[in-house]
Amino acid sequence: MGRAKLPRKSTNIDMTAMCDVAFLLLSFFILTTKFKPAEAIAVETPSSVASKIAPSKDFVLITITKDGKVFLTLDDEQRKEFIANSLNSTRNLGIDVAAFKKAGFIGAPIAGLKSFLAIPEENRKGDQLPGIPVMDSTNNELVTWLQLVNESYAGAKMDLLLKGDNVSKYPSFRNVITALKKNDILKFQMITNPENAPMGSELWKKSMSGEKQEN
Prior knowledge:
Layout: H1 16-32, E1 47-48, E2 59-64, E3 70-74, H2 77-91, H3 97-102, H4 113-118, H5 141-153, E4 159-164, H6 170-182, E5 189-190, E6 193-194, H7 202-209
Parallel strand pairs: 1-6, 2-4, 4-5
Antiparallel strand pairs: 2-3
């Protein structure tokens, strides 16, 4: 006796609820996403295969732009307060200590520091600022800044980072190194753009074998 054939019916799935959820999630992510703001100091660092990660807390950063301008960034607010008070007492600058502590970076001559701090934070752009004078060997103000930084750390460990543009001018880099030497700072870390080691190189073989790279 043959089997009774059941009529085939097409499957109908209502996707309305799924579409509603998808659009709600999409709207949520669009409204809550925070886009990365434009950098105040635009720098394109050279590439390297170094694996060491730069510290993200309690550091001192020297930045050299493609135009050879030099900027200084300090992460610790207590040390920034110490430096501001030192400048006020030794040079009678009358700078706003609170504004100095909040400043993301320093990019002006010491004499013009008060005017620099009066500029709203969102308007402080590296390409519009003079930077810290370093080009004149008789008036390399980075020497003074690093001396103040050293005093603020008072023998404590300092993570000094140097971030230079790929096409920055050599004289600026040379004068930054001169300022470091005059303050007996002989160790710093270069910030670079990480990339994979060339295939077939010794570094590539080590990474493929799981061998740890030396810092």
